[in-house]
Known about the structure:
Elements: E1 5-12, H1 30-41, E2 48-51, H2 58-77, E3 79-90, E4 95-105, H3 111-117, E5 118-125, E6 132-138, E7 170-178, H4 183-201, E8 208-220, E9 226-240, E10 244-251, E11 256-264
Parallel strand pairs: 1-4
Antiparallel strand pairs: 2-6, 3-4, 3-9, 5-6, 7-11, 8-9, 10-11
Helix pairs in contact: 2-3
Amino acid sequence: MQQSKLIIVLLLSLVLASCASTGDTVNQGTNVSNDIISAYNSFNGKVFLGVSGAYTNDEEATKIAVSNCAKMIALYEELVFAADVDIREITSLGYEYFKVKSRGVYDESKIANIISSMNILQIARGDRETGVYVLASYDGSENNNFKVNTTYSASGKPAWIDDPPHFDGYRSAVGVTKEYYYLQDSLEAAAFEGAVNIVLNHAGTLTASNELMSMSSSSSSTKSSQSYTRDLYQVNFNVLDGFTVLSYYYDKSTRTYYSLVIAKE
């Protein structure tokens, strides 16, 4: 029997506000980004972070930063994943192709109530492109203090990137993303990638519903006739509760952001 070759293409569709393309020229102040990340990391997952982006009006920038901070709290309360899985097999060649498009969804209707329950701990302005950033605690979150090992590996990166810590009652994972034009987009993308990896790494223990949406088969007459089958599934994963980013890291040399994330078991 010919061994099937498996090609997995993971196409992540982020349900985030106005993410810029990674193809844009990066225009973030590295020192400012690292300062913000250091301030956030010092709280060990007990606060939430929101960054406005390039706003010259401080009042408007603060509103956007608070709203983005509330979005992270909404993800903490309820993060739902849905995924469309397109499975194709070229039977004549023994190839299987998997394409997965995933989406993260939160309840936008809760944002106003979340903002009213936030406790603003710090509001500061970064550089022109970063804008204003906000650190806030939230009355509805558990007052856990997750100690993250700050040791570094031989590569100079935090040890948790290669060996994420385990906390009782929680699943952990690491998210990785290339740098976006704005810091907020980079942080959100890194957080989302981490959430996806929680789902993928713990798929055997997360409840999911699989529904076969369609199935078809056909053959094409070319120089070498190929027959294939196709199955399209929709996979809805349950809510990730208590989703939290414990730590961020920015690698300047590769313009890459990392996130250490957790969610309740």
